[in-house]
Amino acid sequence: MPFPAKYAGTCKVCSRPIAVGEPITSASSGKGYVHEGCAQGALDLGLGERSTPTAAAPAAPATVDGDVLRVWTDGACSGNPGPGGWAWATQDGRQGSGGAAHTTNQRMEIQAASEAVRTLTQRPILVVSDSTYVVNCFRNRWWQGWLAKGWVNASKKPVANRDLWEPLIAEYQRGGIDFTWVKGHSGDPMNDLVDQLAVEAGRAQR
């Protein structure tokens, strides 16, 4: 059951700050806490059963080669669930954003990446995200397990956000797409930009 956070911290799924008083749940592994809206994501990524260093902060180099187009993506949600927004942007000035009236942070993170790779057809493309939920799905190949098990997670429950994962995974399977993690709110100007765009898109949904 969710309970209010007594101390500030960082969500083990979305890597975003946990504010004092915000509804959270603890991972069943006993290692860390997650936003109430991120709890299902923790199970889908296996964090509910075990915790690994890569689950907390994926830092492996991307594998795409050649003239790589980098796109930064981000999702935001007020209340989680609540009104939210997604955004993507490239260093040459291209960008996109949108939102939903009732959503979660994870859904907006997935949609941001999906919208980016569907809109930007250049390959190879590197998606730069501060969401371990999105990055670990591909860097740690969680998606392969989901497909092999018929879209159920390690707890034998349906994988959350399948409607958004499926088109993104389909794009990934076509090749030329990779993901890399960036620490959120760490001074990366492009990460800061897409964060701002996603927050603004979410506000427009209120």
TrEMBL record:
CDD domains: RNase_HI_prokaryote_like. Its cofactor is Mg(2+). Its EC number is 3.1.26.4. Transmembrane segments: none annotated. Residues 65-203 form the RNase H type-1 domain. It is an enzyme of class 3 (hydrolase). It catalyses: Endonucleolytic cleavage to 5'-phosphomonoester. Keywords: Endonuclease, Hydrolase, Magnesium, Metal-binding, Nuclease. InterPro entries: RNase_H, RNaseH-like_sf, RNaseH_domain, RNaseH_sf, RNaseHI. Gene3D superfamilies: Ribonuclease H-like superfamily/Ribonuclease H. The keyword Hydrolase applies. PROSITE patterns: RNASE_H_1. One of its GO terms (biological process) is DNA replication, removal of RNA primer. Monomer. This is ribonuclease H. It comes from Lapillicoccus jejuensis. The lineage of its organism: Bacteria, Bacillati, Actinomycetota, Actinomycetes, Micrococcales.
